[in-house]
User: Fold this.
Amino acid sequence: MSEPGPGEVARFCLACSHQLAETGNPVCPECGTPFDPRDDRTYAGSPESSTARRRRGRWATITAWAAGVCAVVVVVWSFLGMGRDLALLIGIATLPLQLQTLVMLALPGIPIRRRTRVAGLLALLAFVLTIHTDWPFRLAFALRRSALEAHAATVLDGTRPARELDRWIGGLHFRAITLKDERVGFQLTGDDGGGEFLVFIDPNRLENPAWIWHNPNWEQNLGGGWYRVYED
Assistant:
């Protein structure tokens, strides 16, 4: 590798760190990557900076793929009934990683394919929205609402027992289904000491209930007599 001549700017290929020369054909003689001698964003000033840039690009690509995997896992987990409290804890615990991923994928100076960058940012957005809004669970509930209401009706009219264990309804698994004071609780998480429930209160039986469920930590109104609660 020859040293640049007097007045010649040192340029090195961003793709392979090979030294570039000002010729009529502005491409790397080693790997064929094009560059523009007038644009210092298309080449590096030293082999070390070229290598470091490629390293940042590889790490950003890995980060984008990791964001995609995490998003898929969390979306599926939420769709299957992930606990709301656990989701918030995951969001808090991974906040530094979320910010790092956002910075690496958003900075234009880090070399990464456009589609990989966009896919990574969309995956990060899906992850954050799932953690904070739990939209996959709301979708799962909406898709299974009619089956759940039909099941709740049979519990309320006495056709089914007041307590059932380990029950699947429309693809959602419930640890227990319990009738308490005209309220049907579909237990998603926890045990006999408490957990997360889908609670149905028939508006025709209790139009304005004074309370939703026994000893709740929080309540979320899903509409139509349905609530999501956490029994403490």
